[in-house]
Amino acid sequence: MTDTVRLVLADDHEVTRTGFVSLLAGHPEFEVVGQAADGQQAIDLCLELQPDIAILDIRMPVLNGLGAARILQQRMPDLKVVIFTMDDSTDHLEAAISAGAVGYLLKDASRDEVIDGLK
């Protein structure tokens, strides 16, 4: 990759967001340009910052990740949405795909799995 991949990260737990940013710190090909604590904030940041990828927790207040993914796909069809969750159920995976997500990362994934998933 020659260009930096710009990310918006949305999770209602600050420690999760901080950990994710730290995980990417050694990978200059990725830049977290915005962080949100709920789905509506994620939408607002994505519209403002125009990232390449939105990483959304599936469960957040105000608007969950699936709802945010649907809206983002309507308003920003070129944006890649990745769901980032602890929930490994097939139902949620299928719902994420239906909402327009191109990826589904589990929060217990290794650093390499996360990096590979974002590439």
Q: Report the C-alpha radius of gyration, rounded.
A: 13 Å
Tell me, rounded to a whole number, the average pLDDT.
94
Instruction: Name the CATH homologous superfamily.
Output: Response regulator
How many domain units? 1
pLDDT below 50 for ≥5 consecutive residues: which ranges? none
Number of strands: 5
Strand content: 15-25%
What top-tier CATH class fits best? Alpha Beta
Query: Helicity range of the residues?
Result: 40-55%
Biggest sheet character: 5 strands, parallel
| Tally of alpha and pi helices | 5
Q: Any guess at the CATH architecture?
A: 3-Layer(aba) Sandwich
Helix-strand topology string: EHEHEHEHEH
Give a structural overview:
Keywords: DNA-binding, Phosphoprotein. This is LuxR family DNA-binding response regulator. InterPro entries: CheY-like_superfamily, NreC/VraR/RcsB-like_REC, Sig_transdc_resp-reg_receiver, WalR-like. One of its GO terms (biological process) is phosphorelay signal transduction system. One of its GO terms (molecular function) is DNA binding. The chain has 119 residues and is α/β, with parallel strands linked by helices. The chain has one domain (5-118): Rossmann fold, CATH 3.40.50. The chain is built from five helices and five strands; from the N terminus they run βαβαβαβαβα. The chain has helices at 14-24, 39-49, 65-75, 90-98, 111-118, and strands at 5-10, 30-36, 53-57, 80-85, 103-106. A five-stranded parallel sheet has the order 2-1-3-4-5, sandwiched between helices. α2 runs parallel beside α3. The protein is globular.
